[in-house]
Write a structure and sequence with these properties.
Elements lengths: L1 H17 L5 E3 L6 H33 L2 H25 L7 H28 L7 H36 L1 E3 L5
Antiparallel strand pairs: 1-2
């Protein structure tokens, strides 16, 4: 039974690890103070997001253990990480009078929070009872992972679209995996 549950977790982990927004790099065009400030702002925001992303990976690893106390601990850590991320994002404030980046990052963090409260919570319920799962339960399990991946992909696609426009506006590029 464990093998049936393992595949979606591995797939989701790969997507989470490789889809994280990337760090910035200036274009060869002339740099301005705005460019440097925008790069620094972007990189700080992404560092906050990566902390939450890492927590989600930890939670998915915890689910694989099948041990309730480990999973509960991971959920608690994710909730703390999300709460801290929201504080840190709000503390960073807007960028040069424009709060769009801040709001987009808060939306991305809200997506993580929603994943934990909905699909991942339901996945945990099924994973903790895997010995008793029917074929229909396994189908639900896989469907929940699919739904979580779609939500995750949509949230990141929206954020990446904004992030690339932000980078273009301030004369830098986003390095790493494009979404």
């Amino acid at each position: 039974m464990k093998r049936k549950l393992l595949f979606p977790v591995i797939l989701f982990l790969q997507i989470v690890l490789f889809a994280s927004p990337a760090i910035s790099s200036p274009l060869n065009a002339k740099l301005t103070d705005d460019t440097d400030d925008a790069i620094e702002y972007n990189d700080k925001m992404i560092a906050i997001q990566i902390e939450v992303d890492n927590c989600i990976v930890y939670l998915l690893d915890a689910i694989e253990t099948g041990k309730k106390f480990i999973i509960k601990g991971a959920i608690k850590e994710c909730n703390i990480s999300i709460k801290q991320a929201k504080k840190d994002i709000k503390k960073m404030g807007d960028f040069q009078g424009d709060d769009e980046y801040q709001l987009k990052m808060l939306d991305l963090i809200a997506m993580y929070e929603d994943l934990i409260k909905t699909e991942i919570s339901d996945i945990i319920d099924l994973a903790l009872n895997e010995e008793e799962l029917s074929d229909e339960d396994f189908e639900s399990y896989y469907n929940l992972y699919d739904k979580a991946l779609v939500k995750y992909d949509e949230g990141f696609a929206e954020f990446f679209e904004f992030q690339y426009k932000f980078a273009d506006k301030y004369g830098f590029t986003i390095e790493g995996d494009e979404y």
